[in-house]
Write a structure and sequence with these properties.
Elements: H1 2-9, E1 12-16, E2 24-25, E3 36-40, H2 43-50, E4 57-61, H3 66-77, E5 87-91, H4 96-104, E6 109-112, E7 115-116, H5 117-178, H6 184-215, E8 223-227, H7 228-238, H8 240-245, E9 249-253, E10 259-263, H9 264-280, E11 287-295, E12 298-305, H10 312-316, H11 339-349, E13 353-358, E14 364-371
Parallel strand pairs: 1-3, 1-4, 2-7, 4-5, 5-6, 9-11
Antiparallel strand pairs: 8-10, 11-12, 12-14, 13-14
Helix pairs in contact: 5-6, 6-11, 7-9, 9-11
Amino acid sequence: MLGEDLKRNNFLIYIIDPIENHIFNGSLNLSDYGIEQRLFDTCEMAFESIKDDIPGMIIIDYQYYTSQNSQFCDLLRNSPETKNIPIIFTSENANTENVINSFEIGGSDYLLKPVSSAIILAKVKTHLKLNRYRDEINSKNLELEKLNNEKNEIIGMTAHDLKNPIFNISMLAKVIKNDMDLSRDEEEEFCQDIIESADRMLELIANLLDLNKIEQGQFVPEYSEIDVVPLIKNVIYGFSDWTNGKNITIDQHLKDGCLIESDQNAVIQIIDNILSNAIKYSPVGKTVSVSTYCLDNYFHAEISDQGPGISPEDQKKLFKKFARLSAKPTANENSTGLGLSIARKYADIINAEIICRSAIGTGTSFVIKFPVKQPA
């Protein structure tokens, strides 16, 4: 396995020693393993070459170049591109002081000359392994850093989004408790405000739980044969009070006849989030159009609004968590910035696709494409 890796990587060794024949012995031909060797008379020459072609390993004759070694190793160890290159010192004797010094100035190993080519091959293989482990660790560290930043962002935004409704509930509850002269109409108004504030918090918490469930891999789709049109009608009906309150008409062009094989909960969540967005950003008295059709082995659900439209800059961050867009809800509705992110994640899981078409001043259309159930 590692032999094949070597051939693919064309591993490069720099040798700083004017007498190349004194370095290796043994029957192995390193070039057969994809190992290229380049010989340099001085450390300065090797360093100049490193600027253009970074080696995987450097072998230096310790005794011949003692005066140059320290500066050369410092330059390598202080550069991000070369700091992990193993430096192997070689010598014809194992003087203890020299061995210790070679490690102190940045060496990785100290070998007696002539060096067995089999040993060098083994060290190259080990170095490739260490590189893989290092890359894996670096990748995990970057991932952990990203997750930590994301966690801090979520905590900050959640605290910010919960602060106002909690304050409103606390303030209104104190007014109701302490003011004995409130009329029945005032009490009902304050109670309605409390309900709306609580609903805002519940929506945010529900979205966060949904998002966490998906990202933790705890959502496992249960596939079944689904007629999407009745699901869309149910979602539209569920928004009746909201659309009536904004005098928004839902113009329905729903064609039956296309069945999909998917997870019903995921389908509902996707449609719910995108339709609620259309209503939220539609001005009072406008129309939201919902149409369905089958095309090219996909069931299409298209939801279009007459809102302000989405700028190209906002479209780039449309499906990101806690995305804050330029457009604002038209009736002071709450926006967690999580709905479209959740819709996209559900779509990815069930192999659906969400396409946004929009421009400033022309409204927005979302097309959701579900794979059609194929005949057995």
